Amino acid sequence: MYAAIAPGNFSPTVAGDPSLVYVPNGVAGTVEVIDPRTYRILRRLSVGSFPEHVTPSWDLKQLYVDVSASSQLVVINPRTTRVTRIIRRIEHPYNLYFTADGSMAIVVAEYYNRLDFYDPHSWTLIRSVPMPCSGPDHADFSADGSFFLISCEFDGRVIKVDAQRMTVLDTIQVGGLPVDIKLSPDGSLFYVANQGTNGVSVISAKTDRVLAFFPTGRGAHGFAVSRDATKLYLSNRLAGTISVISFATRRVIATWDVGGTPDMIQVSPDGNRLWVSNRYSGTVSVISTRTGKVLAVIQVGNDPHGLAFFPQPGRYSLGHNGVYR
Q1: How many CB atoms sit inside 10 A of residue 17's CB?
Q2: CATH (one of 3.20.19.10, 1.20.120.1730, 2.20.25.110, 2.130.10.10) for 3-324
Q3: pTM of the full structure
Q4: What are the pLDDT digits (tens) for 261-304?
C-alpha cells in the first residue's frame, strides 16, 4: 500500500515546491509556515476561527486549511505559501479527505456528526451522510479505495462507509475514545488509536472484526507510517511519548519519552525525522527516527493541531494532514 511513499518518489506535480511545514493553530486562528532546515517561522497566515488540519489536495497542487468554526476552506498555493482563495459555506470542516480516484472530497463535519461529499472542483455538495455516532474524526481507506473506516471519538465506535455509494455499511464497537486510523501495508488490517483505552485496536479489513488490542500509552492519538513502511509511529498525547509499532509483529518495539503533548505527526520526506504538534503546549517538536531524541522544539501559536510537511513522496493525497498512496 505504501510503495509510492518511499524516499525520492515525488510526483512531477510538486517539482519546484519548497519543502515546508504548515502548522494550524486552533485558538490563534493562524497557520505558521516553518523552514524544516533552519526551524525558523517564515510566515504566519491568519485564516479564521479554529483551523484544525492542513490538507494536501488529491492532485497535490494546493493545500486546504480546514477552518472549522469559520465554516470555510482556505486555499494555499504551496509554491508561494500565499492564500489564493477562500471557499465559504463548507459547514464546520474538522477534517478533509478525498476518494482514491479524486472524484469526491469528503468533509468531516464533526460538529454535526455528518460527512459531506463534494465535487472537489466546483465545491458543490453531492450528498450529506449522517453518521450513527458522536464525533466523527479521522479516517483511512481500504486497499482498493472502495470503503473507508472513520472513528467516532465520543462514543467508542468506528463506522465503515462505502466511498462511492456514500452509505454506511457497518458499525464497529471499539470502546473508549477512538481517534486516528491507519491501514496496514498489506491492506488486511486497520489500526485504530484510542485515547480512552490508551492503546491500539486492530480491525480486520475483510470481516470488520476487532482482532486484537495492545497498550501504548496514555492518550493514544495520532499515527504516521515510517518511510520504509515497516513501522507505525503513534503519539501518546497525555503520556508525552511516541510509540514505535512493528507492522510485522503488531507490537510496540520502542517508546520514546519526548515530552510535551504530542498530537498529529508527519514524517520528513527522507524518513529521518518526525514533526509533531504539541496540542496543549503551543509547540512543535522535531524528533530523530533513529534515536527518538528531540532535536528541536519550536514555539508556535496556541493549540497547534494537524500540521502538514509538504511536499511528500506519493502519487496522490487521500487527505487529512497528508496521507499518500
Answers
A1: 18
A2: 2.130.10.10
A3: 0.97
A4: 999 999 999 999 999 999 999 999 999 999 999 999 999 999 99
